[in-house]
Amino acid sequence: MIPPIASNFVAGETPSEALDHVADLNARGVKGICNLLGEHYDDRADADADADAYIDLAERIARRDVDACLSVKPSQIGLEVGDRAFEENLARIVDAADCFVWIDMEDHDTVDVTLDAFERHARETDGNVGVCVQANLKRTGETLERLADCPGKVRLVKGAYDPPASIAYKEKSKVDEMYREYLTYMFEHFEDGIAVGSHDPAMIEFARDLHDEHGTPFEIQMLTGVREDAQFELAEEYEVYQYIPYGSKWFSYFYRRVRERKENALFALRAVVGA
């Protein structure tokens, strides 16, 4: 059973609980991105099992007719077993899903194989696949130039992993500067949709200004349990998605969310004291 504080950040342990959460969000204008918790599998059987679970989840989404899509981690569906295992399981998920499929970005040494997989499936599905890129990586400018003409969506986040300083910006102010620079490039050059993955009010306002200037379609993506009142308010005017983790492996996710950034710890504290 998930304790109350963790249930603020995790939708439940079962797909039914996750889709109940989606249905509640849909009623308030917010769409869902469902992620089965799990990562860094080195056993093919575990990777195959989670790929099967995603296929089942896609079928459940279609049966319930909720507005939701999938988000998968490469290391969850076989990347640490080998490139072939990852590629085969991702292809199975994309082929089986009627809904949109996001490919999360993980550690810096997995960027190339993740981008290759995204480009291939985005072109084969005419844009029914998305990928995440991280503003703290120094290579992201080149990545965005590479993806500008590719169908599908690109989610820009600040970056939650801790790559070495030789390849990543470490100062928060510099990451914020690059986030704005990359968003500007995306609104100027991307036509198939931009996902602003941020809880930072300043970044969301910056994206709104860019949208007003360029007219480029975009959506806002936030986590379950973080600034939910703002999510519902933004959904009155913009397309808003909530990233919805669920599953039995909730503890490591919750622990990482709270440790990653000071603001998440404050959100967790407010959830406990009711502030």
From TrEMBL:
The keyword Nucleotide-binding applies. Keywords: FAD, Flavoprotein, Nucleotide-binding, Oxidoreductase, Proline metabolism. Residues 19-267 form the Proline dehydrogenase domain. Gene3D superfamilies: 3.20.20.220. This is proline dehydrogenase. Its cofactor is FAD. It catalyses: L-proline + a quinone = (S)-1-pyrroline-5-carboxylate + a quinol + H(+). Signal peptide: none annotated. Pathway: Amino-acid degradation; L-proline degradation into L-glutamate; L-glutamate from L-proline: step 1/2. Its EC number is 1.5.5.2. The keyword Flavoprotein applies.
